Amino acid sequence: MSHGARPKPAISRKSLNLSGTIRIPGDKSISHRSFMFGGLASGETRITGLLEGEDVINTGKAMRAMGARIRKEDDAWIINGTGNGALLAPEAPLDFGNAGTGCRLTMGLVGVYDFASTFIGDASLTKRPMGRVLNPLREMGVQVTSADGDRLPVTLNGPKTPNPITYRVPMASAQVKSAVLLAGLNTPGTTTVIEPVMTRDHTEKMLQGFGASLSVDTDVDGVRTIRLEGRGKLTGQVIDVPGDPSSTAFPLVAALLVPGSDVTILNVLMNPTRTGLILTLQEMGADIEVLNARTAGGEDVADLRVRHSELKGVSVPEDRAPSMIDEYPVLAVAAAFAEGQTVMHGLEELRVKESDRLTAVADGLKLNGVDCDEGEASLLVRGLPSGKGYGSATGAAVKTHLDHRIAMSFLVMGLVSEHPVSVDDATMIATSFPEFMDLMTGLGAQIEILESAAA
Ligand SMILES: O=C(O)C1=C[C@@H](OP(=O)(O)O)[C@@H](O)[C@H](O)C1
Ligand SMILES: C=C(OP(=O)(O)O)C(=O)O
């Protein structure tokens, strides 16, 4: 969303029999990395299935501003990269809008270069912590200027020769892991990242695919040591981006909850670092059939057939958090309609997403009549399968705090609540899933954007 765009509220209403077959747009994590690595590599990269959400488009603009040539031909994006180590100094601040991934990974990618780069974003991104990436960059010799608390705007100035470091990632974060590895690409010697808890591994897999010398060793406790040889050659690749499991979560949970539903979702990325939600829903009794499981471009992919199911509450262990991190808001909605209580642990990272998602979810659930308790790093939801009394008879709207996943989760909730559910702003949905409204209404969901918000 461009800065200061007018919010558009949206409302969803009780629906029946969602049905049809849909193809989910490309995975956001892989799309960001496709633009970055394609923009950096020598020669041509050809990407199909790219997510054309605002977050990813901002990454493409940043790569262009640093010398990559990017164009679209029919349904493929063609990139001519600068060659590793040959990014150009951006002439203006790089604006990442709402995207933590685009901003933090690019800080790693270009921050170690011997020139200045400035990073800005929207009101949500400006509140998010950047110290988690700036601290390892400082260790590598990067000069950092930032707003209080290591917030945006940030300006980075790399040293003549960056120091290769060994960095143990202090929180479960693929963004931090990736930022350090990307900084290592333009650093002489071996950059080592130790990852005590495994997070999504797209950076490792894709860098290997582009020809980087990168190895991963996993010890008996699951601690991963990732070693990257800096200043090697990257070569353009052909990439077909699989469907985003985090976007899949919304029609999937909607189909489980709405009576009479039978929905098939095609081409979903099933990388095990991303499938925590499916596992959890299956434990809750969800009827999710995994069809045509296959490998494409080095990733597991499958089609999912999802039918309406009676769910029961479960306890979701802390170690599941990295593999379903962005799916907790919509899991909380599923839990609101399950028999019994669901408790989710290990949610501390939810507090530093586009919003404080733990509070945003708990507030939205309470506003719509759900009995839940917000803990420091946990959420307990007492479910009510009938949804009786849920929603808002007065039209009180959930505050989305510029957070796309809060907007989509509560619009799913309204499809099964007694009264409609409203959200104060649906514009941010375009950051990750611009096709959400059309795909959902195409399945029979009653969701409507209200154009008449006060300016
Ligand atoms: O690396 C990535 O592509 C992402 C990592 C996760 O963030 P953290 O690394 O901050 O957990 C996730 O929430 C985000 O949507 C995408
Ligand atoms: C957390 C998310 O993205 P980002 O950190 O890239 O803003 C998300 O998409 O849910």
From TrEMBL:
Transferase recorded as keyword: yes
Pathway given in the UniProt record: Metabolic intermediate biosynthesis; chorismate biosynthesis; chorismate from D-erythrose 4-phosphate and phosphoenolpyruvate: step 6/7
Record-linked PROSITE patterns: EPSP_SYNTHASE_1, EPSP_SYNTHASE_2
Catalysed conversion reaction: 3-phosphoshikimate + phosphoenolpyruvate = 5-O-(1-carboxyvinyl)-3-phosphoshikimate + phosphate
Catalytic residues (positions): D326
Amino-acid positions noted as binding phosphoenolpyruvate in the UniProt annotation, renumbered to this chain: K28, G100, R128, Q175, R357, R405
Oligomeric form and interacting partners: Monomer.
Functional note: Catalyzes the transfer of the enolpyruvyl moiety of phosphoenolpyruvate (PEP) to the 5-hydroxyl of shikimate-3-phosphate (S3P) to produce enolpyruvyl shikimate-3-phosphate and inorganic phosphate.
NCBIfam families: aroA (TIGR01356)
HAMAP family: EPSP_synth
Protein name from the UniProt record: 3-phosphoshikimate 1-carboxyvinyltransferase
GN (gene name): aroA
